[in-house]
Specification:
This protein has a 6-stranded mixed beta sheet with strand order 1-3-4-5-2-6, covered by helices on one side. 33% of the residues are buried. The chain contains 11 helices and 6 strands. By secondary structure, the protein is α/β, with parallel strands linked by helices.
């Protein structure tokens, strides 16, 4: 069964055009993800919070100051490819819940007021179906309000952010935000997030686990996981996944008979060169339409 809500693209098509955000079953478990001890400890606290929420709220009387929604807002931040999105799936799996994945572009509308309506419908969908709500590239949604309003669209952006604050206060479910640009968040949103979890670039021990996961013992190779981890310093889980695929294709194409040190080094060097050439702009280059001192009204 497919669940969804309307995302308006054209005013003339408002009544007939519909785009669906599917409710998905999580594919990842916490046991499959290479995480630092600190990150894993925080995630275990999140799951405990959700599973024992009634005790926290009523037996321990946290409801005295949590008057509105008793949901949980989580923020994952760190470089691309460090496991933020799959960890959100793993949390949903731990809670035996489904997940709704959202990119801000999927709810944003060119028409004033429509983005707020889309957000309201999305939150209702998540609460009705008891799904974990995951916002990728959340800095676009949680960034500081536009201070110098020059057009109607700017008013719409600010209205959507104010709507989101209200929705967060009333929501009873679990929301995970993920971003590479944590510094862009507005303070009003930060105050509503209980857990801010950093996903760092993996150290050698974490890289070893990542190679163990991606390089099956059935793959012909003459180097061990520790060697692969040593050679892949500075790379993240997403990078290792892509390099593994390239190595597998090299074997299938007959360009190599096994994954050895030479083949691994060649693919890592090629990958790093491409990554360097297509490096994303820094946080300082992003968000030229906002000002640092702009704050959301609560």
């Amino acid at each position: 069964m497919t669940f969804g809500y309307k995302i308006v693209k054209d005013e003339k098509e408002a009544d007939k055009q519909e785009s669906t955000l599917n409710i998905e079953k999580p594919q990842w478990t916490l046991g499959e993800i290479a995480l630092s001890k600190d990150t894993l400890a925080q995630i275990e606290e999140m799951v405990a919070y959700i599973q024992h929420r009634e005790k926290l709220l009523y037996e321990w009387e946290f409801n005295r100051f949590l008057k509105a929604g008793n949901g949980l807002n989580i923020n994952f931040f760190g470089p691309p490819g460090t496991g933020k999105s799959i960890t959100a799936e793993a949390i949903a799996h731990s809670l035996q819940a489904n997940i709704i994945k959202v990119n801000y572009g999927e709810v944003e509308s060119e028409f004033v007021g429509k983005t707020s309506k889309n957000l309201t419908a999305l939150f209702k969908q998540a609460e009705d179906t008891k799904s974990l709500l995951f916002f990728d590239e959340a800095d676009a949604l949680l960034s500081k309000r536009i201070a110098n309003l020059s057009q109607a669209a700017d008013h719409g952006v600010n209205t959507a952010k104010s709507t989101l604050l209200t929705l967060l206060d009333k929501f009873n479910g679990v929301i995970v935000f993920a971003t590479n640009l944590f510094d862009n968040y507005d303070d009003a949103f930060l105050r509503r997030i209980i857990f801010n979890v950093e996903f760092p670039v993996p150290d050698k021990a974490m890289r070893t686990k990542l190679w163990e996961f991606h390089l099956s013992p059935k793959i012909p190779r003459s180097l061990n996981y520790e060697q692969a981890a040593e050679m892949s310093d500075g790379l993240c889980g997403g990078d290792i996944k892509n390099i593994t695929i390239k190595l597998g294709l090299k074997l299938l194409a007959g360009k190599a008979t096994e994954i050895n040190e030479s083949a691994m080094q060649e693919e890592i060097e090629k990958y790093k060169k491409v990554k360097e050439r297509h490096r994303k702009p820094s946080a300082a280059d992003v968000g030229s339409e906002t000002t640092e001192n702009s704050q959301l009204e609560e």
